[in-house]
Task: structure prediction
Amino acid sequence: MDYIIEMLHITKEFPGIIANDDITLQLKKGEIHALLGENGAGKSTLMSVLFGLYQPEKGVIKVRDKEAKITGPMDANTLGIGMVHQHFKLVENFTVLQNIVLGMETTKRGFLKMDDARKKVMELSEKYKLFVNPDALISDITVGMQQRVEILKMLYRDNEIMIFDEPTAVLTPQEIDELMQIMRDLVKEGKSILFITHKLNEIKAVADRCSVLRRGKYIGTVDVADTSAAEMSEMMVGRKVNLTVEKKQSSPGDVVLEIKDLSVEAKREGQKKKLVHDVSFHVSRGEIVCIAGIDGNGQTELIHAITGISDMSSGTVSINGEDMSKKSIRYKNTHGLSHIPEDRHKHGLVLEYNLAYNVILQEYFQPNFQSGTFLKNDKIYEYAEKLIKDYDIRSSEGPFTITRSMSGGNQQKAIVAREISKSPDILLAVQPTRGLDVGAIEYIHNQLIKQRDAGAAILLVSLELDEVMNLSDRILVMFEGEIVADLDPKSVTVQELGLYMAGAKKEGE
Amino acid sequence: MKQKSTKNYTGILSSIFAIVLGLIVGLIVLFFCNAQQALPGFATILTGAFTHGAKGVGQVFYYATPIILTGLSVGFAFKTGLFNIGTPGQFIVGGFGAVYVGILFTSLGPVHWIAALLTSVAFGALWGLVPGLLKAYFNVNEVIASIMMNYIGMYLVNWITKSYKPLFNNLRNESRNVAASANIPKMGLDKIFPGSSVNGGIIIAILVVILIWLILNKTTFGYELKAVGFNRDASKFAGIDEKKSIIFSMMIAGAIAGLAGGLLYLAGTGKHIEIKDVLPSEGFTGISVALLALNNPIGILFSGIFIAYLTAGGFYLQLFEFSTEIIDIIVAVIIYFSAFALMVKLLINKINGRKATISEQSREGGKKS
Result:
């Protein structure tokens, strides 16, 4: 067979853990091969082995049927292997062209000769329809364009084998479509692509074959065309996963959260624009109301105004009938409001504190955890142990783990545990599953449903249409700071929802 | 609490590493200056403090008192996410407060020294309050604000001292003696260390160290302060009044540095506020003390004593025709290597925690960030 890369029986151990256990990965020439696995399945370790950053204990790597000893990224480069990292490696204040030639500059008597390089870059850019402006500064172009620069970098180095590490995480839907097209074009020109991801629909869209890893073990390789998304997700997670959430019919009770005529004005000078414009709605016990919309249409400002992180210009926020517009954040926190924030590192956690100190972040002053002015450490660690058990938060040192060292999914679980264990009347969940893998998403969705059924009111802000359609009992669509529609998920299609979100349609039209 | 104890251990180890390297460099410097006398000179640095037995030890504690406190001021602010470079200003203003009360309020009797000390605390706190307010409400960088406060403090003290007759000794261009009742009592230390300048100040300093350690590690107040220092947004989000925390942090840091000034000028050892355009060195030494101790309050106690010990030993270097500035070089080099100490600490953690960190990394898998 004409495999261009073969990684055979790779085993890489770290003290206490086998990161890669007898993994075989074979990349055919001219195919897009997906590498699927949850966070922590060993994908990155495997790629680090391929790039010579780690030496495997067992196994061989063959490139073009010849056994290769790869001791560092330079070796990988000479073998024609290139990679687009999840976080781009670009110099912000250099131009596109300067970034592409960086490290491979053409020179004449010590002076740069950019003309040749420019010609080559433009040819490549043309050939693969990348359309980058070679003189634009990296800091001025979009993330999607930056990614194309990374692709050009590989092309400029004549790399035959291209690795994309979670390339779609940072892109908008349109950019994702364009990237998929670029990947297809690349393969047509004889390149081979290894595509690392945990998003199944992208694999279905673009990949030929898919290898699945789970907890450091090789599960199998399948032809994408013959395998359903559900089967692949089962291979990845190791059990059946409900891609749709099962829930009972909602039975809304008393109104908990009531927003009236809430407006937020832009703070920047010279701007009179209202970021949130006369928004009114309510959320009742036992229902999940979802605010859908494209990012940047005022959702963040609305939520910050409700919680009190930033001020509103006008309007009222009441919880359980009590006007909370002028109350402090702490008052709201202790009177029925819980909030899973959008940015878990900025607002959700004190990353330098350990897990126990983070789960009491809003309750350390309660008599359970404080006597006189002293912290009751015994009680705090006891409580943290309980939450760790109840919410299955995984970490290396239990309640003593510094939260920075925990995985994203477990950090989010810690926040969810903290917010839900307060048994809130109203729970604000802002993109609660962003950046998480399938297992964690399923878990968090179930927790939200459980809270709903226990009688909490839930306001969910989400950019993922699947999540919106699956979870919500009522959908509010936000567009340019206004609520443009109040929809029933059972009687609206995704396409229709998309039109409302894009502002192409308003309710009543 | 097992994890915590291993971490402390590596912290101490890395500081010792810095000290050893610093001393070696000091030895090299001695060799350069005068190779024949280098070894005896070096021995003097290490043992000089004991030359006069108990008196020498007492002297070490006397030197250590103000720098332990200025170090604590810097370290405390660091722990709460603030860089208090304003210790010299807080120190001199606090010292001035103590001297003012010490000279003028002679009718207070036995509580005179306590009132003078409290004034130094209040003045220092006031000098910390200003950068705190600016930081909390206008997001002015506390480093810049406190540097400005240093100069305002120094010149203000010079000006008031010079222009107000009862305070000023114009023969020696410095402040007058404080009343005897304002001197810090010896608290029995003169019996243990006869002939030395040591007084109750060191006991007060140790008590303050313990108090700060308690606040930082055991109280909800300290929990809030540290949370704000680590992540101001998350703290605000959790309902902590983050402005109040920043202001309190700077006030407490200022108060400690002010107390340091009070304890020095009330020591009854002939220390006066001299009218010169130089910021008191005790303030900046505090930064060294805090860095060497990696901001740990208990560590600061020991690093303060250690630096005082070197200074005391260095005094005798003159016997070998070396100048005492060599001690300053050694201390500077030690601080220089304390920066490396952070690196060494990371290295030790890496070796110790290889298991933990790497398994974590590999479990992180697809998400590298």
Residues 173-188 of chain A form the longest helix (16 residues). The longest strand of chain A covers residues 3-14. Residues 152 and 202 of chain A are 22 Å apart (CA to CA).
